[in-house]
């Protein structure tokens, strides 16, 4: 099975690294965080009570979601920019704790493996819950100060006014919420390879994952 899972906390580099690994192998990417962000977008735009897990799950189950060429479409609307906002990330992390929502997104995520040459699954529970039989599971970590630095740079490069202390506090809050929830908490699978990228460049991380994959597939 051509499948690599890459899980880890916010700003550890999962998205960037997943895309580069997939590109090198000619595979597709499942950006599972986007599905939780889309769910948050639905809560925010459809005036749903954020505490109402059942309604959120029902509404999300019916959304028409399309990923194409770097764009994300929900019910015919292009939403990529809205999804990237920290307010959407915060809401995503809150509602991602609901078992009803996680169940509603389960099959949608597993279906990504069908009809593709291979898949890199990027998220929090790719190796533990969604693809427990994946042949290679990566858990990507980095020091929280380094992650805050990366997020800060990412925003400043885009011309956004950013506050380092706020970013750090948001990351710590989101880590805490994601690691301590009862359902599918952020943690390495027992058979995951843990990579600490605090002092590694992006290409070094990509190369080490490709090396791990080469070991598995020979
Ligand atoms: O998807 P996730 O939130 O885990 O992280 P990301 O958005 O892929 O990466 C956050 C930022 O860190 C990006 O600007 C990357 O270019 C950068 N990065 C880095 O500087 N060094 C690494 N080893 C990995 C990512
Ligand atoms: O880019 P970043 O790492 O900040 O976040 P993301 O991967 O887009 O995920 C947004 C939120 O969705 C996370 O804080 C998690 O609470 C949730 N999530 C999850 O619970 N399970 C996943 N497989 C992916 C994301």
Automatic annotation (TrEMBL):
Binding positions for ATP per the UniProt entry: 8-16
One Gene Ontology cellular component: cytosol
Iron listed as a keyword: no
EC number: 2.7.4.25
Pfam family, one: Cytidylate_kin
Class of this enzyme: transferase
Subcellular locations according to the entry: Cytoplasm
GO MF terms held by the record: ATP binding; dCMP kinase activity
Database matches in InterPro entries: Cytidylate_kin, Cytidylate_kinase_dom, P-loop_NTPase
Keywords on record: ATP-binding, Cytoplasm, Kinase, Nucleotide-binding, Transferase
An example Gene Ontology biological process: pyrimidine nucleotide metabolic process
Domain of life: Bacteria
Reaction equations catalysed: dCMP + ATP = dCDP + ADP; CMP + ATP = CDP + ADP
Segments forming domain Cytidylate kinase: 4-212
Cytoplasm is among the record's keywords: yes
Family statement: Belongs to the cytidylate kinase family. Type 1 subfamily.
The protein, known as: Cytidylate kinase
Organism from which the protein derives: Pelistega suis
Organism taxonomic ancestry: Bacteria, Pseudomonadati, Pseudomonadota, Betaproteobacteria, Burkholderiales
């Amino acid at each position: 099975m051509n499948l690599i899972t890459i899980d880890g906390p916010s700003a550890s580099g999962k998205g960037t690294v997943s895309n580069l690994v997939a590109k090198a192998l000619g595979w597709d990417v499942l950006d599972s965080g986007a599905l939780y962000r889309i769910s948050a977008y639905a809560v925010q735009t459809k005036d749903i009570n954020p505490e109402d897990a059942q309604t959120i799950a029902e509404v999300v189950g019916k959304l028409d979601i399309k990923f194409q060429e770097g764009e994300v479409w929900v019910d015919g609307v292009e939403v990529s920019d809205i999804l990237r906002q920290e307010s959407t990330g915060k809401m995503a992390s809150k509602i991602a704790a609901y078992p009803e929502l996680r169940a509603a997104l389960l099959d949608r995520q597993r279906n990504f493996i069908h009809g593709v040459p291979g898949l890199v699954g990027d998220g929090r529970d790719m190796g533990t819950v969604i693809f427990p039989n994946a042949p290679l599971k990566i858990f990507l970590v980095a020091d929280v100060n380094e992650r805050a630095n990366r997020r800060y740079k990412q925003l400043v490069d885009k011309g956004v006014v950013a506050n380092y202390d706020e970013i750090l506090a948001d990351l710590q809050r989101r880590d805490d919420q994601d690691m301590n929830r009862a359902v599918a908490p952020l943690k390495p699978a027992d058979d995951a390879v843990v990579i600490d990228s605090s002092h590694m460049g992006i290409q070094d991380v990509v190369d080490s994952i490709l090396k791990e994959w080469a070991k598995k597939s020979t």
